[in-house]
Amino acid sequence: MKVALISGTIAAVLLVGCGGGDDVPEDERVRQVNGVAELATAAYAAAGAEGLYDYLAEDVTATCSKESLVKALGDEPVPDGFKAVNNVEFDGEQARAKVVQLFGEEEREVEWTFVREGDDSWRLTQVPGLEACES
Q1: Residue 124's closest CA among 67, 51, 24, 17?
Q2: Domain of 86: which CATH number?
Q3: Quick one: DSSP state of residue 75?
Q4: Residues 123, 35: contact at Cβ < 8 Å?
Q5: Is 110 within 8 Å of 128 (Cβ atoms)?
Q6: Closest Cα partner for 69 from 124, 26, 28, 6?
Q7: Is residue 14 one of the residues assigned to a domain?
């Protein structure tokens, strides 16, 4: 009886110590999409559209060169940083999410779509302005 109580206490402490809780999504796919969105936003903030190019899906890069992406996103504001991902919705191997980005002191929410490539890799298929990209 004491062993079960101690084991339960240790498990609760481990969950708290590892950051478990309401703010950590249980669905691994949500964590993966969140990670890609955060990395892609950081690359976009650091290098502009060229930085975002590495996070595009293969189908997109097959028809959209890096130079064309830069031109297509030329009128879009470049974020200063990443804040959060909200409302991730899945439809088979595709996901749609609201990405909250920082622009100075302001936050803006944009919708990005993703596709699964491989077992656990997600790539971007749509960001604002991408529809104008043609090689």
Answers
A1: 51
A2: 3.10.450.540
A3: T
A4: no
A5: yes
A6: 124
A7: no
